[in-house]
C-alpha cells in the first residue's frame, strides 16, 4: 500500500498541482512529474523544483525519496517543467505515473 506522501504526490501529478514540502531539511516548491519506485524499491518522485531552498541553483530537477519528505501539501498554481531533457531520467526505475505519458494523454 502506498504511503500518504506517495498518494499526495500522485494526486498532484494527476491534477497538475504544485507541492510544497521539506526535504533534507530544506523547504521546497515543486511540480512533480514522474512517480514510482527507485532501483532499491523505495518510493520516489522526479520533480521540477522552481522555488524554495536548495544546495544549488534553481530551478532544477530533483529526485526525492518520499520517505525523507515531510509536511507535503498540494496547492494550485502555475504548472512548471524543466527545459530540454539531455539525458534519460534515472530517478524512477518502476514508473507508476508519468505526466508526459499518462496525464497529458487523458486531457
Q: How would you classify the helix and strand content by structural class?
A: alpha+beta
Strand portion: 35-45%
Through-space gap between termini: 27 Å
Q: Average pLDDT value?
A: 91
Question: Topology as H/E string?
Answer: HEEEEEEH
Question: How many domain units?
Answer: 1
Q: Roughly what percent helix?
A: 10-25%
Major sheet summary line: 6 strands, antiparallel
**Gyration radius over CA:** 13 Å
Unreliable parts? none
How many DSSP E strands? 6
Q: How would the global form be characterised? A: globular
Count of separate DSSP helical elements? 2
Write out key terms for the chains shown.
107 residues, alpha+beta, 6-stranded antiparallel sheet, 6 strands, globular, WYL domain-containing protein
Amino acid at each position: 500500500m502506498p504511503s500518504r506522501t506517495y498518494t499526495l504526490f500522485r494526486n498532484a501529478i494527476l491534477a497538475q498541482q504544485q507541492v510544497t514540502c521539506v526535504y533534507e531539511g530544506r523547504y521546497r516548491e515543486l511540480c512533480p512529474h514522474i512517480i514510482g519506485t527507485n532501483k532499491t524499491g523505495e518510493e520516489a518522485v522526479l520533480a521540477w523544483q522552481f522555488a524554495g531552498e536548495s544546495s544549488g541553483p534553481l530551478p532544477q530537477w530533483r529526485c526525492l525519496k518520499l520517505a525523507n519528505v515531510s509536511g507535503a501539501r498540494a496547492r494550485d498554481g502555475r504548472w512548471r517543467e524543466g527545459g530540454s531533457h539531455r539525458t534519460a531520467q534515472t530517478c524512477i526505475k518502476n514508473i507508476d505515473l508519468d505526466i508526459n505519458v499518462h496525464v497529458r494523454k487523458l486531457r
